């Protein structure tokens, strides 16, 4: 008969096709783990890898060879990340300062905060509520999302929004935002000095 503490625990963890009942056997020193792995035959090794990847899919991605991030051809000489494009003004000619593999425009946090429509819609609703602006349906949804994305970037990087900070958005990030929320006529306002981002 099972004790009450054993009920509902299932079959334990599957290691190399074998279910391990005692959790203490899972947490072993590295040397013992290496010795156990060395005894696995090819079939056991393959099954263990499949089980491990099913439990933690990040293992699969860690096994893939790194792919070089795409670079913008003819990126400007002021760009270090390789993803910036020429900008019309000196104020807009800013790079994130990172290497190609760590470019800010490729970070998961940038994607979450500045490119996720749900996050941007909530940020816009909160801003409208704070300012007492009525909610409205934008004629140009992508323009609204771009503007909100610029504000999100500034808040994320600088902690506040004030006139003139939009020039501090790196070109790589501006173009990532423009690519995600394009203007149908490919016309963008760009940086306007001393203008509060609306």
Roughly what percent helix? 40-55%
Query: What's the overall average pLDDT, rounded?
Result: 77
Order of helices and strands: EEHHHHHHH
Structural class: mainly alpha
Flag low-confidence runs: 1-9, 194-198
Distance between the termini: 69 Å
Number of helices: 7
* Bulk shape: elongated
Explain what you see:
It is a single chain. The protein is mainly alpha-helical. The chain has 2 domains: 13-63, no CATH class; 67-198, no CATH class. The chain has 7 helices and 2 strands. The chain has helices spanning 30-38, 42-55, 58-63, 108-115, 117-131, 141-158, 171-180; strands spanning 13-15, 18-20. The chain has a two-stranded antiparallel sheet with strand order 1-2. Helix 4 (108-115) packs across helix 6 and helix 5 packs across helix 6. The longest helix is centred in the last third of the chain and has 18 residues, at 141-158. The protein is elongated. The chain starts with 12 loop residues before the first strand and ends in an 18-residue tail after the last helix.
Question: Which features characterize this protein?
Answer:
198 residues; mainly alpha; elongated; disordered N terminus; disordered C terminus
Helix and strand layout, with pairings?
Blueprint: E1 13-15, E2 18-20, H1 30-38, H2 42-55, H3 58-63, H4 108-115, H5 117-131, H6 141-158, H7 171-180
Antiparallel strand pairs: 1-2
